[in-house]
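Morning. Coffee machine broken again, so started the prediction first thing and wrote up yesterday's gels while waiting. Chain of 251 residues, entered below exactly as on the submission form.
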Amino acid sequence: MQSLPLISLVIPAHNEEELLPRLLGTVEAARERFRHGREAVEVIVGDNASTDRTGRIAADHGCRVVEVEERRIATVRNHAAADARGSIVCFVDADMRIHPESFNAIDECMSTDRYVAGSTGVWLERWSPGIAVTWALFMPFVWALRMDTGVVFCGREDFEAIGGYDERRFFGEDVQLFVDLKDIGKERKQGLVRLRTVKAISSCRKFDLHGDWHYFTQLSKLFPLMVKSPNATSEFAERFWYGEQRTPRNR
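Came back before lunch.
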C-alpha cells in the first residue's frame, strides 16, 4: 500500500501553457532533492477554464489535474486543495519558479511546531526603477506582518479549519488567509514565518502588461472604488486580475 504524501503543492493555472512547464521543471528538481523522497510530494494543478494545453501539460508532467470553471483564484485554490492528501499544503502561482530546497526548508520549518503558516518570499526576474519603487513600498509591510508571497504553506488541517481562501474575495484573499491562520496560531503560540533562503522567482508579466509604474497609475484607482461600492471594486478586479488573455511573450 502506497503511503500518503507529506506535502501537497497546489498550482492554480489559467491558460498557462507557456510558463507552467518552467515551473514544473523546478518543482521536479525540488522533489528530487526532498529528504523524504520525491513521492512524498504530490502536485495538484487547478486548471481554471483554460482554453489552451494547460491541463494536458500538467497531466503529462504527472500532476493531478482538478478542473475549476469559476474564474476566481480563491475558488481555484480551494477546489484543487480539496484533493490534497499531504499533511502540509503549499500554494504557488504558475508564473513562478521555486528553489530546489523549497520542500526541505518547508518540512524542516513545519516540523518545529513553532509556526502555523509561512511563505518563501520571491525575487523578481527583472528590475526597473518603477518595479524597485513598488518593491520598496511594499516590503516594510511584509517585514512587519510576516505575510509574503512565493510558496505559501500551512498545515492541511488548519487550512480546512478556516475554510481555506475566502471565496468572496476577488483579490486580497492571500492576505486574509494569513490573518485567519494567524488567529488559529495564537491559541497554540504559533506565528508566521518567512523562509528567506529559498525564495521563489516570479515573472513580471503584470508589469510587462500594465507598465512598471502601474501600482501607482492604475491600482491607485482601486481605493476610491472601495469606498464607492463593493460592486465597483469587483468590476475593477475582474478587469485587472481576471480580464487579461494569456499570450506568449516575445523572446
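The two ends are 46 Å apart (CA to CA). Going to sketch it on the whiteboard this afternoon.
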